[in-house]
Specification:
It is built from 7 helices and no strands. The chain has 131 residues and is mostly helical.
């Protein structure tokens, strides 16, 4: 965020050094924080350490959430692969539930797996919607 943007959103005029400290907290929060929300929070809580603690925790939790989502995707792909090996429709359904039908089909095609009739039907349905 630019110092000018911060001033426009808060009406608080900071020195360059003060703004750099504020901006460091904002940047640490990463892509998960909206400028307007951050500035509103800053106006309310800038006189305490709570804002800094909150955004540190938000950043940490965001990273943990990203890691958990990656692990879930890896598990879903493993389930898809097991559905292929075992020809198990229940595993196929679980993989679709976790990945979504489009991602499921994309992965199957990328891995060179044969499309089941149910997969072909789903693909035809998806392609029919794009007309």
């Amino acid at each position: 965020m630019l110092q000018k943007e911060f001033f426009e959103r808060t009406g608080i005029n900071l020195t360059e050094q003060e703004f750099n400290q504020v901006n460091a907290i904002y940047m640490q929060a990463g892509d998960n924080v909206d400028k307007d929300q951050f500035c509103a929070d800053w106006k309310k809580h800038h006189d305490s350490n709570l804002l800094h603690i909150f955004y540190n925790q938000a950043d940490r939790l965001g990273k943990e959430l990203d890691k958990a989502n990656n692990e879930i995707n890896e598990l879903a792909i493993y389930i898809l692969e097991q559905a292929e090996v075992c020809s198990a429709s229940t595993l196929r359904e679980k993989a679709i539930q976790m990945l979504g039908i489009e991602t499921y089909l994309r992965i199957k095609i990328q891995k060179g797996y044969n499309l089941w009739q149910l997969d072909k039907d789903a693909l035809v349905e998806i392609l029919s919607k794009t007309k």
